[in-house]
Amino acid sequence: MKRLTLFFFLLFSLTCYAHNGENFVTSDMLASMEQGDKAALLMVHFGTTFDDTRVVTIDAINAKAKAAFSELEVREAYTSRIIVRRLKARGIEKLSPLDALLKLRSEGYTHIIIQSSNIIEGLEMESLRKDVAAVEPFFKEIRISNPLLYTVEDAETVVSILEASKPEKGSVVLVGHGTSTPITATYAMIDYMCKVRGLKNFHVGTIEGYPTFDTMLSQLKATKAKQVTLIPFMFVAGDHARNDIDGEWRDALEKEGFNVETRMESLGQNPAIQDIFIEHIRFMLYHKPIGIMEKKAGYAKGKD
Asked: What does the DSSP assignment read for 131-172?
């Protein structure tokens, strides 16, 4: 019964992606295409050098996107220059978003949807948006879809998914990458939402942002936890998951006296999480963002 209830909740959530309706207007991108136009979907990932996690995350969501959007040519790009360089040394070629877009333009593609597998609207999304702005004049239309956690509804859905797969006992620590910008507050929102839903044993920490390790540790001590399960709150369980989470964080918690387990299952491995990204793409196919200046112009004319 619990699983059935969760299913209908998620179904309802995924059909309500006209969230932030004031920031989008209805616009069918494919319907606006003319004869000779070509449309593509560019899946953008930070990337990983670990083949095992790539197969169940990046490759899996790319395949799901191809199945869901057969009308689009699906390509991929990696944003991490270090990962791209290391893979190239192994004979594996991965394009940057800018190079992938220029390649699509050279092949005659005119309409592009871009979906990143980023978790938050952080520095990686900022960099991606700048790359897109540089080549936007070369295309008839480019739309950038949103990362996993863009709205309150996104966060609520993710927390529900996490609740469904929680360990039977002990405390859970979700470890995100984090960022130096104010958007790191998204992780704190996830922590807050978990506790509002009654998941008092769920805590969130980040490697490079807030909440910090110490913030998370103080919560564990306040609840007198003994058993802790570390779970990557990242799209792939790559270098950070193996070295920081299953390495430094695990060691530090064990020194504090906790019995620690690490669940090396990233967000990108979860089909329900993958489906959120797919619905983000679908929403962006039929909606386009409206800028703040356009909205202000409408306000000046008396439009609600």
From this structure: HHHHHGGGSSEEEEPP-SS-SHHHHHHHHHHHHHT--SSSEE
Q: Is 240 a catalytic residue?
A: no
CATH architecture of 166-267: 3-Layer(aba) Sandwich (3.40)
Predicted pLDDT of residue 4: 46
Q: What is the pLDDT of residues 100-134, one digit of tens each?
A: 999 999 999 999 999 999 999 999 999 999 999 99
- Give span(s): CATH 3.40.50.1400, the chain: 15-149+270-291, 166-267
Q: Map tokens 């430094």 to a residue.
A: 248
- The mean of the pLDDT values for the chain is 90
For range 206-215, the mean pLDDT: 96
Cα–Cα distance, 117 to 61 (Å, whole number): 9
Q: Which of 45, 111, 177, 240 is catalytic?
A: 177
- Two structure tokens written together for 122: 């952080």
